[in-house]
Design a protein that fits this description.
elongated, alpha+beta, Thiol Ester Dehydrase, Chain A, homodimer, 28% helix, 5 helices, 31% strand
Chain lengths: 164, 164
């Protein structure tokens, strides 16, 4: 069973409505839609937030650590957020991050078609706030060749049903 | 002695040239320039990468977890990158991140004037690659009231002088 099939099965079992903390459990998986990354997007993001030659100039990028134009890691993270918000787990209250860990095993490149595979790895009701809790969501952002361009372990605040 | 004074002293001691791994040591501190965040920037970033009401709509944001318009955490991270690239430690080879941890203790809001205070906390030459190593850089992104809006511990790849 592929991760996509696991995810579809999981999605079929759960409501299409928003997910509260009470609806979530470790092992639940979700697969996002796709996002196509191009040269213009890479340069536009980099000029605004990460103006370094390996993100802004194909020719200069050849002579750098990246050996060619690469998306800013923050651009990859931002695209991952968009994919999760639009087609990841439909969390009640939205994606509210408290923090997390991330790594970029490979750079995202022009022409990459990215999607996100996410898994709930922890669900923790708050001891002091009965209306909420946190989950840890492990997301992998993957290109069309199966290369992982971002691994992210995010701690998210999720409301409980009692609050609804 | 404030952190800004420590930083200025540190900057005065080091060359204005690019810093190689060999130039870096735990305890070195750097303070960036500033970046003013406004409503239009918050909405523009969010519409592109994090389209949730608390980042795109002042009125809807009032009734959410954030109780008012807040910048996407990825926007805050991207601004932090820009401040570090433009006016943080002048790393030889630029800012090349392998990964890290981040947390958002408070949201960044419209009108915030942000700066970044960074400290080198680890310097590790590579065992297998004599031309490089890694550092861990702890960065705090701080607004004009002293609220910390992002804490980031980044593992960065830095070339050694032997490679120059």
């Amino acid at each position: 069973m592929t991760m996509a099939q696991v995810s579809s099965a999981a999605e079929a079992r759960i409501s299409s409505d928003q997910l509260y903390l009470d609806d979530l459990h470790a092992g639940q998986r979700f697969t996002s839609g796709t996002y196509r990354l191009d040269v213009a997007q890479i340069k536009a993001f980099a000029l605004q937030f990460d103006p370094q030659p390996f993100h802004t100039d194909e020719h200069a990028a050849e002579r750098t650590f990246f050996k060619g134009l690469a998306a800013s890691g923050w651009h990859t993270a931002a695209i991952t957020m968009r994919l999760n918000v639009e087609s990841g787990p439909p969390l009640a209250g939205g994606f509210v991050g408290a923090g997390g860990e991330l790594s970029w095993p490979a750079p995202a490149r022009p022409g990459d078609v990215l999607h996100v595979e996410s898994e709930v790895v922890e669900v923790t009701p708050s001891r002091s706030r009965p209306d909420r809790g946190t989950i840890v969501l492990l997301s992998r952002t993957i290109n069309q060749r199966g290369d992982i361009v971002l691994i992210q372990k995010a701690k998210l605040v999720v409301p409980r049903k009692v609050a609804a």
